[in-house]
Amino acid sequence: MRREETRRMTITAVFAAILIMQTFVPNIGYVRIIPALPAITTIPMTIAIYGTLMGPKAGLGFGLFWGITRLIVAYTQPGDMVSLMLFQNPVISVVPSVLAGFFPGLISRAMGKTDYAKLGYILSGAVTSLTNTIMVILLTSIFFMHDPASLLHYLGNYNSSTPLILILITVLGANGVIEAIFTALVVPVIVTPLNLVLKRA
């Protein structure tokens, strides 16, 4: 039992170090393609791998850690005005991150010991990224519902009569799709050998 706890703590420490590096080293966790718009993030890949390996409860805690680091970055080194306006809100920073960490553990628990384990890994990766993107869009549309103009100014030339949620889907959806495809492809490649190593340990 003590050995298992030590192993889990070691794995968590390694992933926490990776997440910190992705968060604070430029263009590793947040890859900025269009300067004015939010970066494409590779962090959901790390969250998905950790949650898949460690389960939903640990994944939830790790997602919370991501949300807190995202909030810190928004206040200390925001890369663009949209990210500053969105992620300085603790709810928008934390809630999507927590859910993104929780779901891959659930999927892995349900499918990890079946013949569809690798499909579960792919699904874990896609769901992690999509959960983050969808929740950010939904929460942003709620918090800026009564003052969309303050955000629209930084999103581009959009008709003020266009619903904010449709504009957010247009602007953030492309990033979300790219992130989901990337994460879905990478997670099984990393998780499969890691699981074998951990079983032998």
Secondary structure topology:
Blueprint lengths: L1 H23 L5 E2 L8 E2 L1 H12 L1 H21 L4 H7 L2 H22 L5 H27 L5 H7 L8 H37 L1
Antiparallel strand pairs: 1-2
What does this structure look like?
This protein has 201 residues and is mostly helical. 78% of the residues lie in helices and 2% in strands. The protein has 8 helices and 2 strands, in the order H-E-E-H-H-H-H-H-H-H. Helix 3 packs across helix 4 (81-87) and helix 6 (117-143) runs antiparallel to helix 8 (164-200). The longest helix has 37 residues, at 164-200. It starts with a helix and ends with a helix.
In short:
The protein is an all-alpha fold and 201 residues long. Helices cover 78% and strands 2% of the residues. The longest helix is centred in the last third of the chain and has 37 residues, at 164-200.
Determine the N-to-C terminus distance: 13 Å
Q: What percentage of the residues does DSSP assign to strands (E)?
A: under 5%
- Compute the number of helices: 8
Secondary structure class reads mainly alpha
Radius of gyration: 17 Å
Largest sheet: 2 strands, antiparallel
Topology order in helix (H) and strand (E) letters: HEEHHHHHHH
What strand order characterises the main sheet? 1-2
- Overall geometric form: elongated
Poorly predicted regions are: none
Q: Could you give the count of β-strands? A: 2
How would you describe this structure in keywords?
201 residues, mainly alpha, two-stranded antiparallel sheet, 8 helices
